[in-house]
Amino acid sequence: MKPKYRLKNWVVLCIYIISIGAIVSSLFLVGKALKATGLSYDNLSYVFRGIIKNNEVPVVNYANDKIIKPYEDDTVEKAIGFYDRSDDSKIQEKCLIYYENTYMPNSGILYSSDKPFDVINVLDGTIEDIMADSIMGNIVTVRHSNNLVTVYQSLNEVNFIVGDVVKQGDVIGTSGTNKIKTDSENMLLFEVIYNGVNINPEKFYQMNIQDLS
């Protein structure tokens, strides 16, 4: 039978002290790196949901919290508005999407222009998903803080990939086409989802994200 060896108490203590020192040094280097880039723990935080699952990505919180429109071009107009159940029936009729002999309530706002326009990110966040849809064209989903998600549909070009951090005002892509409205080649269907529920984007612009309730 082989003899059992045990580390002496002073050896264990030395290993413990060395480990603590390594952790403290790592934290110091991280803090130094953040300071060098102009960031701090106060204005940059990551929300981790354990191990990232189901293609979820970390949400980045930044100082810009006043929501802007997803375009800057003055030629952009509203083609189909948001279907609100509380609106008058005549208004609701104008907010229906007709596709393949079926009327559907519009869950966002469909914008259109007579020329291509840049699609702008409305609030700091992270690209959560990008997909090519046979009906709606390229679709980009951005996750923000406060359980807020924005969706940009009918894009032609897309300038980012999944996982990219995007700042407010970044050009996500360019306007494109879809099959629900074929009389324009320059469209954007924009959706705002808060706590899992679609809300009217027009009531959302210029709002402070902390005011969402």
What does this structure look like?
The chain has 213 residues and is of the alpha+beta class. The protein contains two helices and 14 strands. Strand 4 and strand 5 form a beta hairpin. The longest helix is centred in the N-terminal third of the chain and has 28 residues, at 9-36. It is globular. The chain starts with 8 loop residues before the first helix and ends in a 14-residue tail after the last strand.
Which structural class fits the helix and strand makeup?
A: alpha+beta
Sheet-strand content, in percent, reads 25-35%
Number of helices: 2
**What is the averaged pLDDT score?**
80
CATH class of the largest domain: Mainly Beta
Map the helices and strands.
Blueprint: H1 9-36, E1 45-47, E2 59-61, E3 77-80, H2 89-93, E4 96-99, E5 102-105, E6 109-112, E7 118-120, E8 125-133, E9 137-143, E10 148-158, E11 165-166, E12 171-175, E13 187-194, E14 197-199
Antiparallel strand pairs: 1-2, 3-6, 4-5, 6-13, 7-12, 8-9, 8-11, 9-10, 10-12, 10-13, 13-14
List keywords for this structure.
alpha+beta, two-stranded antiparallel ribbon, ten-stranded antiparallel sheet, 213 residues, 2 domains, Glucose Permease (Domain IIA), 14 strands
Quick take:
The chain has 213 residues and is an alpha+beta fold.
